[in-house]
Amino acid sequence: MQLRVFGRTGLELSVLGFGCGAVGGFMVRGDPAEQERTIARAIDAGVNYFDTAVQYGNGESEKNLGRVLQRLKPANIAVGTKVRLPASEFGRIADAVTMSLEGSLARLQLDRVDIFHLHNAITVTGGGPALSVRQVLDDVVPAFERLRQQGKIRFLGMTAVGDSAALHQVIDARVFDSGQIVYNMLNPSAAEALPANYPAQDYERLFDHTSAAGVGVVGIRVLAGGALSGTTERHPIAGPAPAPIGSAMSYDADVERARRLIPLVREGFAASLTEAATRFSLSHPAMGTILVGLATPQQFEEALAAVQKGPLPQAALERLSELRQAFSGEPR
Q1: Nearest to 15 by CA among 283, 327, 319, 294
Q2: Contact call for residues 183 and 253 (beta carbons, < 8 A)
Q3: 3 state SS of 18
Q4: Cα dihedral angle (225, 227, 228, 231), rounded to 10 degrees?
Q5: Which residues make beta-bridge pairs with 321?
Q6: pLDDT for residue 43
Q7: Does residue 181 sit in helix, strand or coil?
Q8: Whole-prediction pTM value?
């Protein structure tokens, strides 16, 4: 398993992380014995980053990950979890952050987590469930820093969803060590300029900002919530089709565009769309570790096999760019 230096943290994380999210559902609704076997298999294969959140199954993902790690007691792994503050708690951010982390640590059966990510959307002025840039920098970051001083977290993280301008401001402040960033074959804008009138959020080369600030990148929505499988079928334990992030306004539209990328498979660049999507996400040097949603142990094996093939070759990236050109001008 390839390891990559994770920003300025000094951590070396496996390029394939273990996503414990609710979209795939494996660590929320999966069989406990299968969860343990699959995590043991992942650790044996060199996976050393495990990513969860209290929102995943209302704490079930954290409980299940904690149970398995207590049984396996692996050395040299990193665990990340998250806090999503409800708008009703914006007046007491420090207390709400602390309470959320305490609950997470209890469920994970850990004294500290390696990365604690803010899970709220961030916009310039805030409003609704989104936090403003000022709230993040003036209220959230000091609360996180106090928890770091107490030894309960090692590194500060954020989930890069919201307004692109706001995300740039927060990254550029150089107070976060980790950023969870949308990057996939439908929306590569964290790395490169989009064609004119392209139907996706433009993250305006966010990787330039993370690289300059020394922020480690966790790749999220690598499979666009499953849409880059090219099918609308979902495993029985998977969550319902998720709302897209950064790409089309509907999951079905993402699936339809994903199917238009199948020439990558027909022309021999990858054995499947999911393999192509997984390998694409590793193709940029700013990427630290990627999270692939899982519903079954087999899906972990497929992700592992894809990662072991390495990033897509330049010819595949050029072909993908050609195929995406056709999306320009379409409604988002």
Answers
A1: 283
A2: no
A3: strand
A4: 140
A5: none
A6: 97
A7: strand
A8: 0.95
CATH number of 22's domain? 3.20.20.100
Count CB atoms within 10 A of the CB of residue 95. Answer: 11
Per-residue DSSP letter, 184? B
Nearest-angstrom CA–CA distance, 86 and 274: 34
**pLDDT tens-digit readout, 223-281:** 999 999 998 888 888 888 888 999 999 999 999 999 999 999 999 999 999 999 999 99
332 within domain boundaries: no
Number of structural domains, the chain? 1
Q: pLDDT tens-digit profile of 241-254?
A: 888 999 999 999 99
Length, in residues, of the chain: 332
**Residue 331 in domain:** no
Q: DSSP alpha helices (H): ranges in the chain?
A: 26-29, 32-45, 60-72, 93-108, 133-135, 141-149, 164-172, 206-213, 251-259, 263-266, 273-281, 297-309, 314-325
- Is residue 35 situated within a structural domain? yes
Matching residue, tokens 């209290």: 54
Contact 320, 327 (CB under 8 A): no
In this structure, what token pair is assigned to residue 282? 């590793």
The pLDDT, as a whole number, for residue 237 is 83
- Give the C-alpha separation, 208 to 284, whole Å: 11
User: What does DSSP say about strands 153-159 and 113-118: parallel, antiparallel, or unpaired?
Assistant: parallel
Parent domain of 143: 3-325
Tell me the two tokens of residue 35. 């969860």
Q: What is the dihedral of CA 236, 242, 246, 248, to 10 degrees?
A: 90
Do the domain assignments include residue 330? no
